[in-house]
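ok here's Chaperone protein HtpG:
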Amino acid sequence: KNNEERRGFEAEVSRLLKLMVHSVYSDRDIFLRELVSNACDACDKLRYEALTKPELQAGEGDFAIHISIDKKASILRISDNGIGMDHDDLINHLGTIARSGTAAFLEKVSGDQKPDLSLIGQFGVGFYSSFMVADSVRVISRKAGSADAWEWESDGEGSYVMRPASRDQHGTSIDVHLKADAKEYLEPSRLRTILQRYSDHISVPIYLDDGDPKSDQTADETPKPVNDGSALWVRPKSDITPDLYTAFYQHVAHAHDEPALVLHTKAEGVISYTALLFIPQNRPMDLFDPARKPRVKLYVKRVFISDDNDELLPGYLRFFKGVVDSEDLSLNISREMLQQNPVVRRIRKALTNKALAELQKTADKDSDRYGKIWDAFGAVLKEGLYEDADRRPALLKLARFRSTHADGLISLADYLGRMKDNQKAIYYVTGNDLAAVRRSPQLEGFRARDVEVLLLCDPVDEFWLSAVNAYEDKPFKSITRGGSDLKDLEPKDPTADAETKDKDASDRHDAAIDSLITALKSLLGTQISDVRSSDRLTQTAACLVAEDNGLDLHLERILRQHQQ
Ligand code: ADP
Ligand code: MG
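and the structure:
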């Protein structure tokens, strides 16, 4: 035992495992999906490596995933002939969590109160989910190109053991030693059902070796895979059920929710590509994490090339996940070359247009569904308003807002339709949260005149508003700016306004205001640039405004915070 090495899990893994082991997550079946998904990824990776180093896969048969059952020993084994892991890979991949958003996830589920288990599903615990059904897990792996194999074993209680092992060919076998209450996963029919449900789209054939000599396959018959084994995105749309799309989405995007939108499109002609893209229902926890990896995988003629490329979609569409497969790229394209590649650039352009068109179609057809997408990802889409000037008109059409005049979301077209006769601008107010901006005293004069104001609460709003001047020739104007003049607009109820019909009273009133203004100016001195009487308030006595050509108040506050 002296070549054994015991190591502790990274603290985050331990916390995650405790959650897995001690909380009964309702859908334990997903552990099999996760292990098969990893096996498929491993085959994809080796297929790519072997493009330039064919010796890595020399003499091996086709890629395959084998699932076998040892009833006596209570072991379920998932085996692949993919890329495999060496000593350091095992430590780095199965002892730590590299995924961004982990800290945020653990924050949400930790604490004394019962963890929200739906979050586990959403976060996706991958390999570690095997500990839901296992009292121990043993991984034997040999990396392609290496002669050494290593064994990793753990009971999920804080540490794991590494020891040298042997394995005939490259790849990985995972032995799941099933808990007493998880013996159902030794039943071939149960496994077959799960595999068909979750793994039919897997593009590597999966063989179930049920250990039963009386089963329908005799030794000399070629065994039949449980799954279809072909890439889902090349199958005809009519053959793909919604469930199949969902299962594929969960695999390819490492996601655990349902897609809110499926975009399956095939282009032929000047450039040819197939794209199968999804919008998740939930905001991933790392949406605004700068270290976040894009989740669109690039395939060339069905061969996986890369999953960490920014080239296929612009940043403001980073919430799309899925695959793009092209016939027009060379299999030898290196990941580094993607950026400069003209074909990639053309695909990106076409795909961006396609994605925006699909969003518009959804907005037109099903505003409820679109509203949910907007609530989750609108803040990201709005980045496009200043990043992508060419598509600004399309993005402004897609933009939705909260406003003083509606409970739900409105479009700019809705706003224009409700503008008053003399109204020259689209008014908005920005702030940190909706409840606070709704209370802005600056809104009072607009309310009194029934003038609609957009309520903007995303940090990105300040940025696009500084780049986008107008929509259909109507300028955007902050109500906290000095010149938001309401004089041209009729009050809804004239008595609610400060103006009075009596001329004498009005003169006396003006004189009183003038002396108040003088007094305030001498009191506040250089801290302010001006004191003015205004039409914007009806109930509050005074409010701060920004100068017409100065910064918006909220923006000024943001900038001040950042300078500290
Ligand atoms: P994810 O698949 O989202 O990266 P997992 O927890 O499922 O997360 O797996 C963690 C990592 O372990 C994978 O990214 C991969 O590097 C490695 N891994 C897991 N299973 C295998 C396997 N069968 N073959 C090779 N590498 C694997
Ligand atoms: Mg995985």
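+1. The pocket of magnesium ion (ligand 2) is lined by residues 34, 37-38, 126 (CB under 6 Å).
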